[in-house]
Amino acid sequence: MTAKRSLITDYFSQVGGTVKKCKPAHTSKVDEKPKVIPETKPRETKPPTKNPSLEFTSFNKQEWINSLTSEQKELLQLEIDTLHISWLSMLYKELTKPYFLNLKKFLQSQQKQGKTIFPKPQHIYSWSNLTPLPNVKCLILGQDPYHNHNQAHGLAFSVLEPTRPPPSLINIYKTLTIDYPDTFRVPDYQELLKQGKPGGGNLTKWATNGGVLMLNAVLTVEAHKANSHANQGWEQFTEQVIRVALEYHQKHKSGFVIMAWGTPAQKRLKPFEKMLTKNSTSGNGNDQFLVLKTVHPSPLSAHRGFFNSQVFKKCNDWLEKHNRDVIDWSVY
C-alpha cells in the first residue's frame, strides 16, 4: 500500500495556515446551454509564513517514517512529532546517523536513571517551530540551555515565566537600550510582579515575529549541571542546522545576520568560514550574510565591548539595506 504523501498543506497547517477545499464543478445536462461566467481576477492570498518554499513538498514524511526500524522510530519519536517540517525535510538524513542515534540512547538512559533534563522534551525543538527555516532573519548562537527550573524552553538566552531575566539577558537588554534609547524599555520584573505577570525574560516574540533563530550548540542539559550534555552529539547536529540555514538562504538569495557572542559561539562558525567569507558583508550590496562577533553578554565579559557593540542596530541596518523587514526587539 502506498504511503500517504506529506503535502505543502501539512507545512501550512503547522504554522497556522489553512487551506480551503474546492467544491467539485457542477456538470450541466447535455440539452442545457452552458452559462457564460465572466472572468474575474484571482484573489490573492498571503501565505502564513514569509517565502514558503514548495521544495518542502518533495519530502514524504510518512514514507521516511515507514523506512525506519522499530528501534529508530522509538528513539526518534520526539523528532517525528516536534521538529518543524521545514527543518525536518532538510535534516532527516542526519537523524539516522550513528552519532545522533547514540545521542538519543544517551538521553534515554539519563531518563531511565531518573535524572531531570532541561528543557522539557516538548520544548527541545521549539526553535524550529517558532522560527521555520524560510523565516530566519537573524541567528543568535548560544552554548547550552539554562539548567534550573522554569528557565530553558528551547530558545537560547530566553527563559520561561515567572523566572527573572538572568544576568546575561539583562546585559542584552542594556545593550538594546543603548542601540534604541527612545523605544526599548527593559522589562521591569517588580512591576510585572505587581501586575501578577512575573517574568520579563521570554523572547518568544523575537522568534515568532522577528525571525530570530535562537539556537544553542547543545540542546539539552542535566538539572543544575551546566554543560553536562556537551560532547554527546548535539554539537554535530546543530552544526548541520547552521549549515542548512546558510545553504537554504544562500540558494534563495535571502541571507540573514549571525550574532556570535563569545569564543564558543564563534567556534561554531569555523566550519563555514569559506562560505561566510565569500558571502560576507563588504559594502557592495550583494552580500548574503552579516557576521557580528563580540564578547559574550555574561557579566564576566560584557564590559569588554558588548554594551557598545551595536549588534542590534547593525542587524536592522543590514536587513533594511537588503530590503528585509527589520526586527522589533521589544519583548512584549
Automatic annotation (TrEMBL):
SUPFAM superfamilies with a match to the protein in the record: Uracil-DNA glycosylase-like
CDD domains per record: UDG-F1-like
Biological processes, Gene Ontology terms: base-excision repair, AP site formation via deaminated base removal
Limits of the Uracil-DNA glycosylase-like domain: 129-319
Comp. bias regions, Basic and acidic residues: 28-47
MF terms in GO: uracil DNA N-glycosylase activity
Domain of life: Eukaryota
Reactions listed under catalytic activity: Hydrolyzes single-stranded DNA or mismatched double-stranded DNA and polynucleotides, releasing free uracil
InterPro entries tied to this protein: UDG_fam1, Uracil-DNA_glycosylase-like, Uracil-DNA_glycosylase-like_sf
Enzyme Commission identifier(s): 3.2.2.27
SMART domains listed in its UniProt record: UDG, UreE_C
Annotated compartments: Mitochondrion; Nucleus
First-level EC class: hydrolase
Active site (UniProt): 144 (proton acceptor)
Keywords noted in UniProt: DNA damage, DNA repair, Hydrolase, Mitochondrion, Nucleus
Region of interest: Disordered: 23-53
Record-linked PANTHER family: URACIL-DNA GLYCOSYLASE (PTHR11264:SF0)
Protein family: Belongs to the uracil-DNA glycosylase (UDG) superfamily. UNG family.
Entry function: Excises uracil residues from the DNA which can arise as a result of misincorporation of dUMP residues by DNA polymerase or due to deamination of cytosine.
Protein name per UniProt: Uracil-DNA glycosylase
